Amino acid sequence: MTKAGKFVVFEGLDRVGKSTQAKLLAKARGAEYTKQPGAHRSTKALRDMLLNKKSQVSDFVEALIFSVDRSIHTEQVLRPALAAGKDVVCDRFIGSFLAYQGYGRQGDIDFLTDLSKRATGGLEPDLVFLLQSQRSFTNGLDNDRIEGESTEFRQRVKEGYLTLLEQNPDTWCLVDADGTQKEVAERITQLAAERLNWV
Question: What is the CATH number of the domain that holds 104?
Fold first, then answer.
């Protein structure tokens, strides 16, 4: 498949404002906004299985469920939109998988990378925004299963994201997520103009 539209992904730790900024950019560009996991109607049950605090799944099963979700999402949502010439802004993609299930869970990065490539048929984003904030994250009753993980887990995820940023300088860019919603959006708009010629 030849991509006619641009594929932009937002990555980052939970509660960093990534979903809000992804929606703002999609609206500004007239792009399709989507997310992982659970965006497709057939995968909502998978999202619940992954994020429900009562779910008990092993790290391996968790990785497989995420991959099934990503495969369906890529086939049914991302590729059709991109092939039709529509720009797509996605909240989480392979970067989250490697950061959380790889670095966070201390899984086999090579295996997970290969699994992701197979699940997506090699689809790669044109640009990835990695949002980072100095704000502290506090566990609460409303946290889902993954948000409720330990501080050490989140630190490993953060370090994993920075490793991915370093490994992919052509497609990944770091965004300071501190400040007002408008200030962060302006930083993202400037980067999109520089990296994708979105003006």
Answer: 3.40.50.300
Chain center to CA of 4:
21
Cβ atoms of residues 133 and 177 within 8 Å: yes
CB 132 within 8 A of CB 175: yes
pTM above 0.70, yes or no: yes
Provide the pLDDT for residue 1: 52
The residues, any chain, with a CB within 8 Å of residue 97's CB and separated by 6 or more, are 63, 66, 67, 70, 112, 116
Q: Which amino acid, 12? A: G
**How many domains, in total, are found in the chain?**
1
Confidence class for position 99, pLDDT limits 50, 70, 90: very high
Residue 1 forms part of a structural domain? no
Please give the angle made by the CA atoms of 199, 171 and 115, to the nearest 5 degrees: 135
pLDDT in tens, 163-172: 999 999 999 9
